[in-house]
Every structure is written in structure tokens, then in C-alpha cells.
Amino acid sequence: MKNDNARILIIDDEEAIRDSCSIVLRKQGYDVQTAADGVQGLKLFQQGSFYAVLLDLKLPGMEGKKVLSRIKADSPETPVIIITGFASIESAVDTIKRGAFDYLAKPFSPEELRVLVKKALESRTLYTRNIAMQEEFNQTTQSGMVIGKSDPIVKVMDIVRRVSVTESTVLITGESGTGKELLAAQIHNFSLRRNAPFVVVDCGALVESLFESELFGHVRGSFTGAHETKHGRFEVADGGTIFLDEISNISLNIQAKLLRAIQEREITRIGNTQPLKVDVRIIAATNENLAECVQAGKFREDLFYRLSVVPIHLPPLRERREDIPDLLEHFILKSNKKARKTIRQISPEARKALLEYEWPGNIRELENTIERAVVLSEADQIDLTGLLYHGIGSNLSFLNPTRGQYKSMAQMEQEYIQLVLHANNGNRSKTAQILGIDRKTLLAKIKKYHLA
Questions:
Q1: Is 142 part of a structural domain of the chain?
Q2: Same domain, yes or no: 350 and 417
């Protein structure tokens, strides 16, 4: 965190202490405010957003321990440094158990003050990053890299290579399931921010009433149900990258506030008046045409231009079929590890169906399909029957139109009977049972379609 972004509050009834500490900290570039008693200090704290507090234990009106409790209840991430006289060191140590960061015993040197404030600010940064890491751990997001050697993906990765090391805002477009979040994570991992948080916001999953709080946070008591202070995603992402998925879903009201956050590099929690500086790189994604949304009056033109500094389009899987074999291998290995299986191959028939299928759900659908097949397979390979049994039979290419070419009912019946026969190693009785017809009818159809 940069010094000029950090606001420090000093609460002490001794004017000499307030003045001397203010001078030292302002020389370091901090924004310093002071209060002479606990009530005034709490009022200032609740009106603004402070990164650290220097607090005297012995204050008129409201004692320091009570002020500490109120500050930690409202803002547990804010480090509080206790200022105390030598005779009260035991009390200062006790406040550490109550949540204080550390203490300074009077008299203290300017260097002691500078060092302790720096450590306190570092602890605050670590606190917010731990929140991000916990959220990342709890999410079931796809891991790994964007996979493929097709021309469209090679071009995409060339843009990623060039844009990752910059601070430019990126807009990723593409159908659902094409891997937009994965690509955003890859840009972050290749960037200079790779050791800072990567925070995901699913704009399509948040209700309008909670969206502002989710993005920018709120202070305790700012609205009904706000029982504690909440850190917004922008604050948690400070120093790193925020990924706004399905950005087209946000309302015009939130769009205006998001635009301000991008332009000013600062946010304001709900219920607060003092803005917080944030250092965040923004990557947005959508499966809609934002330019058309702008023309329809559903999306702000100025925000659109702010977000689409570097546009990247991820093609659907049906336009990069040559990548499917590599993706199949990757997902089989991943699913084997997850399910503790040893599936080694895909039958030629199943591979052909997988390659010809249109994949409306794109890579996400392919991964889910392979995971189901691996989990439920009783053999060491994935075959057509296995795919059918796993719930996608009606979506496979032998039943669906391929590139717009529809099949006759006779063709579909012939291919399906052949499929079930093959899956049952030619056992006609079992095939007839699965098809729901008697053996005599099956024999007639085998003869009709020359399947013997």
C-alpha cells in the first residue's frame, strides 16, 4: 500500500502527542486526522475510512479500552496502536488480547512510531488478502490454463501475452462456457500483480439491492441487516485484479458508480462519506454484445469505452474443434485425479461423436461430460454407451443435426440400434431389452438395416 493512500487517526488528549505524531507521519506521506477524546475520535472514525488508529488508553469521557472495542467491532481489519505511559504497560498488553495491534510506551522516538505504523498497515493488507484467499479457496472455479493450438486460440494467447504485463483494462467476450474467467485468471497470473488477490464478482448472480454493498462494502448499521462492517470486493482486491463477470447484468445506477471507481481509483462504502483509495486492475467479461447494449440504452457508452481498452474475443468450441483432442486429454487426467480412476482412452465411436457435437455449452459442457463419464465408467475407457448413460445421449451428434444437416428417422433408428448393439457386444436379447422391443422386432430391424 502506498503511503499517500493511507489515512491515520490519532486519538489522544495530549496536544503535544497529537502534534508530534502528526508531523512525523505526514512527513511519511500519510493523511493524518486527530481527536482529543474518545467520543470525538469515534465520530471521526465512523465518518471516514482509516487504515490505522493511534489510541491513548487514558482519555476523558470514554476510556481507551471502550473506544478500542467499538473500533474493532465496526472495523476488525483496522489495526489500533495503543499509546500508553510506562505505568500502564500492563493495561496496554491486556488490550492486545482485546484486539489491539501493538503499543507504544511514552516517550517513544519518531523511528519507533514510523516502524510500528508501517507494520500495522502491512497487517491490514495481509488481513484483506487473507479474505480474498479464503474466498478463492471456497470457490469451485476452473483451474489450469487455456488449452489449445488452433489459430483462434493462438491469436488470443498472443494478445494475452502482450496485455498481461500492462495495467490496461481488458474486456473478454464470448459465449457462456468458453473459459472467460480462466482467461482472466491467466492474465492476472502473467501480470506484475500476480502475488496480489484475484477477486471474482459474478454480476449475473447478485441481486440489485446487494450489488453496491458487494462491490464497495458497507459500514455497520448503514441499513437494515447491516450487522457488521463488510469489505467490498474492490477493497479486498486492493493491489490485485478484480474480474467482473457478466458485466452486462449491472444496472445503470451501479454502472455510474463503477465508472467513478474506475476513473477516480477510489470507492465509498455504503453509510460512509470518506472515500477509500484502491489500486485495482479491472478485467470484465460478457456473453452479450455490449455495443448493442449501448445502442439499446442498457449500458453506458462511457463505461463501455473504459472497459474495452483491450478487447479479447474467445471463440466457441465449435469454431476450434481441433482443440477438442487436447481438451479431452486434459479433462480425463483432471477427472481421473478427482475421482481416483484410471480411464486411459476414448473409443473411436465416442471420440467421433465428441468431435462432431456442436457443444452449445462450450468447454464447460465438455468438462462436465467427461467428468460424468469418468466417474460412472466401469471400464478403463469412455465409449458411446457410457456417454448415453451419463445423460447426454439426446445431445450427441448422431441424434442432433451436425452443421445444420438433419437426419431422417430411419437414419437415427439405424445408428441408435447399432450403437446399443455395439455397447452390448452384439448381445441381441440385452439390446432388445434396452430398446424396449421384443427380440423378433429387433431381428427384423437388424435385417432391414443390414446390421448383421
A1: no
A2: yes
